[in-house]
Amino acid sequence: MSHKIDRVRNLLSRYDSALVACSGGVDSGLLLKLAAETLGDRVTAVTALTPFSVPGDMVRATEWGDALGVPHLTVRTGQMDDPEFMANRPDRCYHCKSILFTALSGLAESQGLSVILDGTNADDAKTHRPGLRAAKESGVVSPLCKAGLTKAEIREAARQYNIPHWDQPSESCFCTRIPFGRSITLEDLKQVALAEDFLRQLLGLRVVRVRHHGDTVRIETETEALGRLVERPAAQLIDRYLRAQGFRFVTVDLGGYRTGSLDP
C-alpha cells in the first residue's frame, strides 16, 4: 500500500496549488491530509452546502480542515433549481456533480488554485457512478483512484495517519434514499433526514438508511442490528414517529443494509 501512497504524493506534487473537495468522509479526509503535507499552504478545502447533505459530514470536514490548518470554504450549489436533477432519473448524480464542479471551478479560479481534487477511489470506478463522467468533463483529478487505492486500503492508511474518522461508515447524500423516477422534493428529503436522525438517536445505529417509497418507508441497517428495530418499546416508538412524519407504512428490510440498493 505504501507505494500507492507515494504515487498519490507524486501526483499531487505536479500541481502548484489545489482545491480539495471534502465530503467529510474518509476518502477526502486522507486526500486532504496528503495534499496538505505535499503542497503546504497552497491547499484549500471546500464542502458543498445542500439540502440533501448529511449534517455530520460538514462537521467532520470542518474539524479535519481545522486540525490540519487548511482553510475550509463552503459553497452553496443550485441542484434544487435544476429540472434534470429534480427529475431523479438514473443519471441524477451526473447532473448533481456537473452543477457542483461548475461551482467549484469558479471558486478555484477566484482563489487562484490550479486544480480541483476529489476523493474518488478505485472501488468507485467499478460501481454505478454517473458523477464520474461529470468529474472527467470538468477536469477534476482523483489522485486516490489514479493510484489504485481501494476503500479498504484508504481506511487502513487513514488509521495509520490518525485521521479521527478513519472507521466512519460510508455515507451518501439523502437523494440516494429516493427511488429513481420519484422526483426529488424538499419535503421528502426532510422526512428522510429527520427519520435517520431519530433512529440514530434512539438506537445508536452506526449505519441506517431510510428508503422513501412514497407512503411507505423501508429501513435498512446492519444485519446484526435488525432485531433492535422490531423489539418493543423501540418498534412502537419508531412506528409512531415515522407515521407522524407522514408515512403510512413503516417497514424493515430483512436483507439489511447494502450500498446502492436503489441503483438500476
Can you offer a commentary on this structure?
This protein is an alpha/beta fold and 264 residues long. It folds into two domains: 2-160, Rossmann fold (3-Layer(aba) Sandwich); 174-252, GMP Synthetase, Chain A, domain 3. It is 45% helix and 13% strand. It has helices spanning 2-12, 26-39, 55-68, 83-86, 92-111, 131-137, 143-146, 151-160, 186-203, 226-230, 234-244, and strands at 18-21, 43-49, 72-76, 116-117, 208-213, 216-221, 249-252. The strands form two sheets. Strands 3-2-1-4 form a four-stranded parallel beta sheet, sandwiched between helices. Strand 5 and strand 6 form a beta hairpin. The chain is globular and about 55 Å long. The mean pLDDT is 94.
Overview features:
2 domains, 264 residues, 3-stranded mixed β-sheet, 11 helices, 4-stranded parallel β-sheet, Rossmann fold, alpha/beta
Rg (C-alpha, Å): 19 Å
CATH-derived architecture of the largest domain: 3-Layer(aba) Sandwich
CATH superfamily of the largest domain: HUPs
Query: What is the CATH T-level topology of the largest domain?
Result: Rossmann fold
What percent strand? 5-15%
Whole-number total of structural domains: 2
Give the N-terminus to C-terminus distance in angstroms.
Answer: 33 Å
Give me a quick take on this structure.
With 264 residues, the chain is α/β, with parallel strands linked by helices. 45% of the residues lie in helices and 13% in strands.
Set down the secondary structure blueprint.
Blueprint: H1 2-12, E1 18-21, H2 26-39, E2 43-49, H3 55-68, E3 72-76, H4 83-86, H5 92-111, E4 116-117, H6 131-137, H7 143-146, H8 151-160, H9 186-203, E5 208-213, E6 216-221, H10 226-230, H11 234-244, E7 249-252
Parallel strand pairs: 1-2, 1-4, 2-3, 6-7
Antiparallel strand pairs: 5-6
Helix pairs in contact: 1-2, 2-3, 2-8, 5-6, 9-11
